[in-house]
């Protein structure tokens, strides 16, 4: 299992300016005040990176376009850890 940090998705398809600004603030807050280093599966910083990648993937699917490789890679890495609904 790859335990390297997930990349921050550069693609902004489907992400509003407000969402992106709040996401950056949340990520910064978790970087400063968040928990100590954790594995990729339990880190809140990695979780918000994955959530962002999932939103971009869904926006591409709705638009009928192809997401970039980085988005697909990020969503696939955490897919097995997705909470059951």
UniProtKB/TrEMBL annotation:
Residues 63-77 have a biased composition (Polar residues). It comes from the Bacteria. Residues 61-85 are annotated as: Disordered. This is Uncharacterized protein. It comes from Glutamicibacter bergerei. The lineage of its organism: Bacteria, Bacillati, Actinomycetota, Actinomycetes, Micrococcales.
């Amino acid at each position: 299992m790859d335990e390297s940090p997930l990349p921050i998705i550069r693609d902004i398809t489907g992400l509003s300016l407000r969402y992106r600004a709040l996401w950056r603030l949340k990520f910064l807050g978790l970087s400063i005040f968040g928990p100590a280093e954790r594995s990729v599966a339990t880190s809140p910083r990695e979780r918000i990176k994955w959530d962002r990648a999932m939103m971009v993937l869904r926006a591409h699917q709705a638009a009928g376009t192809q997401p970039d490789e980085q988005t697909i890679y990020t969503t696939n890495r955490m897919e097995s850890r997705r909470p059951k609904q």
